[in-house]
């Protein structure tokens, strides 16, 4: 809704249907303005007419046709029926040819007694709206201009004849300008409609890909646990923790199937609780969690889920590949830099990041998944000297550091 003169009016939609409604408004508006002008001048026109009765008869017929075509185009919210276009052109031509029946020759140019010229200019506008082919518009304009000249030129003096010829070109001008405007708006609306359709398709495809990645991230850790069980020979001391993790992952799959994706921006848990939950799934690993320095740092959803999944993937990689004797998960927050930091470090085999291609877990579940939430990932590893993965994310502007318990 827009305010015009203090009144609320509906805004036209920027669609092909909106353009057609705008064209109807222009056509009907031009005719209404012309008829309103004549209404103001009608007392003088009736007084100077050679036959006021004929003037009223012709005017009545024209008003009836205008009301009929107005009702049709307003009801349809478009002026695209060529039959009405030809009917309006024929009616306008008849009105112009009837002008000599109730006007003197001296009044047929520049006088509201000969009201046909001004009122039929809207027919030239209407022809540019209703007809899609240029030749049809040209025929309508020739009919209007020809009827006007036939009715006006006979008996016209030199100056009046020149005025009549100039007036005839007004039909051409109105039709050309209306055609340029309406044609441009129709092309513009068509382009906008296609762009909206493309954007909708792109959004649907992006949503499909996000959902697929979400499923892949969920299944990746499950596959790691299943491989351990399927391979057989699981050490007795790992059997209990792995079964507990398998149950936790099964519950996550059930929650995934039952619940819709979490919308961005919803409040989530704290960074500390997310890290402790992730570490809790890997009790079989020698993990030391030192996360108190990040106490009170909030993580909005779905970033919290992405961080938990990423840390879980890093710990799963340690279990599967590192053969580490010590793993440290450290968290801190730096208000001066406006960011929090999480480090997952192990003293295992390590690898050469430049020579070793990233697997799905590190590439998709860690780097790409966290990048989507503005969280940077840095991987440092040396063969034989372990691996350290650092995650950095933004602190909320309103966050204030919380002193860990026991701090003097």
Describe the fold and architecture.
With 408 residues, the protein is an alpha+beta fold. It has two domains: 2-198, no CATH class; 263-408, Heat Shock Protein 90 (2-Layer Sandwich). It contains ten helices and seven strands. It has helices spanning 16-48, 52-76, 82-98, 116-130, 134-152, 158-231, 236-258, 271-280, 303-322, 360-371; strands at residues 2-4, 7-9, 287-290, 327-334, 339-346, 376-381, 387-394. The strands form two sheets. The chain has a five-stranded mixed sheet. Strands 1-2 form a two-stranded antiparallel ribbon. Helix 3 packs parallel to helix 5 (134-152), helix 4 (116-130) packs antiparallel against helix 5 and helix 6 packs across helix 10 (360-371). The longest helix is centred in the middle third of the chain and has 74 residues, at 158-231. The protein is rod-shaped, with a radius of gyration of 40 Å. The model is unreliable at 1-8 (pLDDT under 50).
Mean pLDDT equals 84
Q: Give the strand order of the largest sheet, numbering strands 1, 2, ... along the chain.
A: 3-4-5-7-6
**How do the helices and strands follow one another from N- to C-terminus?**
EEHHHHHHHHEHEEHEE
Q: What share of residues is helical?
A: 55-70%
Round the Cα radius of gyration to an integer and report it.
40 Å
* Helix count, DSSP H or I runs of 4 or more residues: 10
What proportion strand?
A: 5-15%
Cα separation of the termini: 61 Å
In total, the number of domains comes to: 2
Low-confidence blocks of residues: 1-8
